[in-house]
Amino acid sequence: MQFEDPLVARIVAFIESVGIPVLIEPVADSLLPGATVRRGTLVFDPARLPYPGDLLHEAGHIAVTDPAVRDTLDEIPSDPSEEMSAIAWSYAAALEIGIDPALVFHDHGYRGGGGYLVPALAGRNAPGVPMLAYFGMTAEKHRAQERGMAPYPAMARWLR
What we know:
Blueprint: H1 6-17, E1 22-24, E2 35-38, E3 41-44, H2 54-64, H3 80-97, H4 114-122, H5 129-134, H6 144-147
Parallel strand pairs: 1-3
Antiparallel strand pairs: 2-3
Helix pairs in contact: 2-3
């Protein structure tokens, strides 16, 4: 896919490279302006997406969903542990593709607290990381050596 915005192109290329399908088409009303999830696919409308970094967060929800039901996911569940996991996943993804995490954690989302998440996710006890570790996707910093894995924000795998 080709995009006018190189940031969107980079984000979409990463999302697809980890195995999450992406579809470009008009998106009607949705929780996140210009983007939604349909049957485990990230669907978005580039013309209506105000914050390209939001794509990483939505992809994070797909990535941390139980693989047995991922292909049936049509809406983001209201599960606090999956929300925190998606937040931690999207931070790691931003670093992996070399973009400023502030593009994901802007103050127009996250109930106005996006700016507080970046330093929290860079810290020793990053929120959401214990769930990613439980899913076998990464290792907490204090357990990385015993698990034989690089510590978060490095990811051993991008899909649960």
